[in-house]
Design brief:
By secondary structure, this protein is α/β, with parallel strands linked by helices. The protein is built from eight helices and twelve strands.
Length: 247
């Protein structure tokens, strides 16, 4: 009787770790999120029970209490439960809460970290979050707190010279823009990447002063990563210097 928490990576099914694949192959039950690629379920045994417990903003198919209960119930009934979550489960993923609940019920727990969308999506779009002479650090901020408000940390991050990455923030984009505009940073480069690492990826680049109009014109929506900082303008340059290869 055990639970393995796996980070599925940012979207591309090839970005899961080998350890994650091995755990999926041994699972009796898999509870997966909406952002975890369904292609990963092909690693499961034929008799594995697969349950979609995905959540999207304002469209929850299962609330957290239900998910916690299912993890314990299935572990007690079937044996090995894999909880498959998009990105890395400990970065805005509520993974720790789920493991804590399982441990409270006497269930053995394991963690397999995943590649986080916070750095992988910009990297594959040609944006280095840090590079010498341009950016020496970066912040990762949630656009949605438990109160459905923009994190107060964004105002602090915006005052720094660091690259700022906002996850789950598209519905707060106007507030994010206003925060930077009030600091006089309307010329700061911005990149927004929708469905990063997936075949239907879309990227729009601009500045704080015009990004809202560009997003509307290009039809960019969630799920998307917002990158604010000088490095956001490097995407085109990096793509010219590198050759993308499909393995």
């Amino acid at each position: 009787m055990k639970v393995t928490l796996i980070g599925a990576g940012p979207g591309d099914p090839d970005l899961i770790t080998l350890k994650g694949v091995k755990a999926l192959q041994s699972a009796d039950v898999v509870l997966h999120d909406a952002l975890a690629s369904t292609e990963l379920l092909e690693y499961c045994k034929p008799d594995c029970l697969i349950v979609n417990v995905g959540k999207r903003f304002a469209q929850h198919s299962c609330n957290q209490d239900v998910i916690n209960h299912l993890i314990v119930e299935y572990a007690q009934q079937y044996g090995h439960v894999v909880r498959l979550k998009g990105g890395d489960p400990f970065i805005f993923g509520r993974g720790y809460e789920e493991l804590e609940y399982a441990r409270h019920h006497g269930i053995e727990t394991h963690v397999v970290p995943g590649i986080s969308s916070s750095y992988a999506v910009p990297a594959l779009a040609g944006i280095p979050l840090t590079t010498r002479g341009v950016s020496e650090s970066f912040w990762v901020v949630t656009g949605t707190t438990k109160d459905h408000k923009l994190s107060n940390d964004l105002a602090l991050a915006a005052q720094s010279s660091a690259t700022v990455v906002v996850l789950m923030g598209m519905h707060k984009l106007s507030e994010i823009v206003e925060t930077y505009a009030q600091l006089g940073k309307i010329e700061l480069p911005v990149a927004i990447i929708q469905n990063g690492t997936r075949p239907d990826e879309k990227i729009v680049t601009g500045k704080v002063g015009n990004i809202l109009q560009l997003v509307q014109a290009e039809g960019i929506g969630s799920p998307a990563i917002i990158v604010l900082g000088a490095v956001a303008q490097l995407a085109d340059n990096v793509k010219k210097l590198t050759q993308l290869v499909n393995y």
